[in-house]
Design a protein that fits this description.
The complex is a heterodimer of chains A (364) and B (105).
Chain A: H1 3-14, E1 19-23, H2 47-60, E2 64-68, H3 78-87, E3 91-96, H4 103-111, E4 116-120, H5 126-133, H6 138-151, E5 156-161, H7 170-180, E6 183-187, H8 207-214, H9 217-220, H10 223-226, H11 235-238, E7 249-252, E8 257-259, E9 269-270, H12 276-282, H13 284-291, H14 313-319, H15 327-337, H16 342-352
Parallel strand pairs in A: 1-2, 1-7, 2-3, 3-4, 4-5, 5-6
Antiparallel strand pairs in A: 7-8, 8-9
Helix pairs in contact in A: 2-3, 8-15
Chain B: E1 5-8, E2 12-17, E3 20-25, E4 31-34, H1 36-44, E5 46-50, H2 51-63, H3 67-83, E6 87-90, H4 97-104
Antiparallel strand pairs in B: 1-5, 1-6, 2-3, 3-4
The chains are: A alpha/beta (364), B alpha+beta (105).
Amino acid sequence: MTLLGEMNEKAHALGIPLSVHIDVTYRCNERCVHCYLEHDDKGEMTTQEIKDVLDQLAEAGVFFLVFSGGEVFMRRDFLELVEYARKLLFNVKVKTNGVMIHKAEAGRLRELGVEQVQLSVYSHRPEVHDAITKLPGSLKRTVDSIKFLKSQGLKVTLSNVLMTVNRGDERGTRALAKELGVAYTLDPTVTPKMDGDMSILSLRVDEENLDELFQDDELVGDVEEYCKPPAPVDEDVMEGYSCSAGHTACYISPYGDVFPCVQFPLPTGNVRRQKFSDIWYRSPQMNEVRSIKVKDLTVCSSCSHAGSCTRCPGLAYMEGSMRGPSTSDCLKSYHRTGIPSANMLRKAQMASSGPLVQILPMVV
Amino acid sequence: MAETYIAKSTAIAARILGGEMMIMSATDSTFFTLNEVATVIWQSADGRTPLSEIVERRICEEYEIEPEVARRDAQEFVDALSQHGILLVSDRPILDSTAKGMEAQ
């Protein structure tokens, strides 16, 4: 096991929140078609409030800190917050669209010892990227920002979301990352809006696109290994957990609300009214999330993919139950291995069995 | 013999987890955990206290380790961490570890 893996296990055993993702604002200078956020400012935490939260997180043992948004640079105090976080010796990662990063900002991020900067790019073509962000000129500005960050020696990742509107440009975007000399990540997950609006799910790519992705060794590594059938489910799997949300990780909104994960909108408390450690250790909701083992899952506990599925409890929660299946992950498991999930089989059976009560015309 | 002074680089992340110090370099993302004795040296790396004094007062006395063994182990530890830019080493007191930390990268 790697040192990082050992650290995760130790944090899990000790109940320590090793990683926290904090959105410092929901305001943004882009209006991405797939974004799940509402961008109006409904009372963001002040500079001092965020600094107080950071003090509490350091005391709780948090090591990895992700600053994200909205667009983080929409806050004029953003670099002050990064400086404060670095003084508390967090490992800091910044997620941004880069539009407001110039040479000076890139240099400052480097000086402050930020470990990694992740920037969203949806296409190598301005007409596609800018149509997604709805900000003319945004691709050029983001690419310029990547160059500034690279020239400072910062570790940069170009992050792409695969959608119906950019699926044809995936290889071109990947080539752009290579040309810029930065890492590349691709995520085919489009999540419902935080207010429950599901309309943006129409941007999710077709299932055939998943097949293509999972057969691409540049993205998944060893295809044969990645797509192999799931190993038999044993006792260890049944006693395990499907995700770090609420166990070693959590999310804090710009308004101080604490959730198990950015993709898991179950309110567990608010740092404006409570101490972070009280929420982390005593919130009934947080404790419920961390009590759920694989064996407790209503459908997934009987699924052959139980030990290898990327099941997201947050997406399951948005589908109706945090103990239920996350359909988009069922599809990923199926398209990765060719073996349908228990949830898919259950749905197929329900569809084929017809209505419970039937009224048929009498044949005379 | 010239003294050795050590200071913590600012280009690192660090936290104590279950009694063990975890350190990650922002420069090359290398990751270390320090044992108890190494943690004492790390925490004493203020740029002003000579390494020999740290070893004598914080290691030999508290852990009853032979001075020769402690000095050798401490030097190896300092060399290893300085190679990753995690500790800054100088033969003079290090007054501004922020500026030096950036140079060390």
